[in-house]
Write a structure and sequence with these properties.
Layout: E1 21-24, H1 30-41, E2 45-49, H2 56-67, E3 71-74, H3 81-95, E4 100-103, H4 118-146, E5 149-154, H5 167-187, E6 192-199, H6 205-218, H7 222-230, H8 242-252, E7 264-267
Parallel strand pairs: 1-2, 1-4, 2-3, 4-5, 5-6, 6-7
Length: about 270
């Protein structure tokens, strides 16, 4: 198994986001937590979001202790627009503003389209696409008022290409790129940027869950799925790290990236270059 990078290998060289406040959805583990940690290391206050767990308070306090920032947590269900609004209210109460929004929450289901459960389609579209709309809608007024904002949508290589048995996920991720471009155009004169990061396979709980599902759908062993399906698509033949995604998210949130907007940025080891 690929060795994960040390937490500080991609640590920010300075506190480039000091004083900024960020919401990162789906951030109690995996890519989302990698981004939250990178933001905190860069001086930003962060609101974590995800399912409640017994160790979330330890995680939250750890970010505050390690990086000297404020860290909050919202258990908002991203399939529920009302709860997304409540999350923003909590962030405003904690930080006074939301400068950066990262839409990362996502779920997956792997199955042939003729047997794909409609309820799973609806939930994937709700969490992977509609939640981003509701969060952006809540974030933009404050960003416009301050003439500064950063919106980062975590899409996927599957926002640029397709794979079989992932109809809902591919549809949602393609939709995220379209939403990103539209928001970028609407906010271009207000100091706001909107971009999509399109990772390849990152070894996260979501990807680990896909391995047995893909094995069943393709009638392969789990080892064959990793070797011949997942990493075969990436010419580097290595998983992307959460630290790499976090470092890019930090850069996109700085003033150095103010002219990058409406972009879908692949971070997938050359997958979509083929």
């Amino acid at each position: 198994m690929q060795t994960m990078l040390a937490h500080d290998e991609f640590a920010a060289p300075s506190r480039t986001l000091a004083g900024k406040a960020a919401i990162i959805t789906g951030s109690t583990s995996g890519i989302g937590f990698g981004i939250a940690r990178a933001f905190a290391a860069s001086g930003a206050h962060v609101m974590l979001n995800g399912l409640p767990s017994s160790d979330i308070e330890t995680t939250r306090k750890g970010l505050e202790r390690d990086f000297g920032v404020m860290a909050a947590f919202s258990p908002a269900d991203m399939s529920m627009p009302v709860e997304i609004g409540t999350m923003f209210d909590a962030a405003l109460a904690s930080f006074g503003k939301v400068d950066i929004l990262v839409n990362n929450a996502g779920i997956q289901h792997v199955e042939a389209i003729e047997t794909f459960p409609p309820d799973k389609w609806d939930r994937i579209i709700a969490i992977n696409l509609s939640a981003a709309f509701h969060a952006i809608r809540a974030a933009v007024p404050g960003m416009k008022a301050r003439n500064w904002g950063r919106i980062i949508n975590v899409a996927s290589a599957h926002a640029l290409v397709a794979s079989p048995f992932k109809s809902a996920y591919v549809a949602a991720k393609h939709g995220i790129v379209g939403l990103t471009k539209t928001v970028a155009l609407e906010t271009a004169e207000h100091g706001i940027t909107a971009n999509a990061i399109c990772p390849g396979y990152v070894l996260t709980p979501l990807v680990e869950k896909q391995i047995p599902e893909t094995a069943r759908a393709r009638m392969l062993t789990e080892e064959q799925v990793v070797r011949d399906v997942l990493l075969k698509a990436q010419p580097t033949h290595r998983f992307v790290s959460t630290e790499e995604i976090g470092a890019l998210a930090v850069f996109l949130s700085t003033d150095a990236a103010r002219s990058i907007t409406g972009a879908a940025l692949p971070v997938e080891g050359g997958w979509t270059a083929q």
